[in-house]
């Protein structure tokens, strides 16, 4: 292979990469966020409170942090944990469905997201029969 041919080969590769290159889609996942909150159907559950485990997945889409490496260009997952905790502490909830939905709504309001998925699990539900955990998942897409 001649030198000119080799240069042409690399030039084509570089041109193709720059034209077809797009930013990767970003998903942020938080697993096992442990919160103590007051949620439950019975008054006793809401009064005494209990530990919940949250899993949160944020569909961020294209994200400048993949290039800039700056926290300001992405969603700070420590702040997401704080938001989820705040929502869980602001009031009592009877159902995990409502709690998950409230967290999802707040995250969609606060961050530029395509969608958010929230799972809340009670690792020690107050049942007469042995159950390892009960959980609820809510998936919300951004509107507009």
Give structural notes:
This protein is α+β, with helices and mostly antiparallel strands and 144 residues long. It is built from five helices and four strands. It has a four-stranded antiparallel beta sheet with strand order 1-2-3-4. The longest helix is centred in the N-terminal third of the chain and has 18 residues.
Q: What's a concise summary of this model?
A:
The chain is α+β, with helices and mostly antiparallel strands and 144 residues long. The protein has five helices and four strands; from the N terminus they run αβαβαααββ. A four-stranded antiparallel β-sheet has the order 1-2-3-4.
Show the helix and strand layout.
Elements: H1 3-20, E1 25-37, H2 43-48, E2 50-62, H3 65-68, H4 77-90, H5 96-110, E3 115-122, E4 134-141
Antiparallel strand pairs: 1-2, 2-3, 3-4
Q: Which structural class matches the secondary elements?
A: alpha+beta
Rough shape?
elongated
Kindly provide the radius of gyration, computed on alpha-carbon positions and rounded to a whole number of angstroms. 22 Å
User: Quick one: biggest sheet?
Assistant: 4 strands, antiparallel
Q: What is the helix content?
A: 25-40%
Number of helices: 5
Which sequence of strands runs across the widest sheet?
Answer: 1-2-3-4
Strand content is 25-35%
* H and E order: HEHEHHHEE
How many distinct beta strands? 4
Residue runs with pLDDT of under 50 for 5 or more positions: 10-19
Distance between the termini: 54 Å
Average pLDDT number: 87
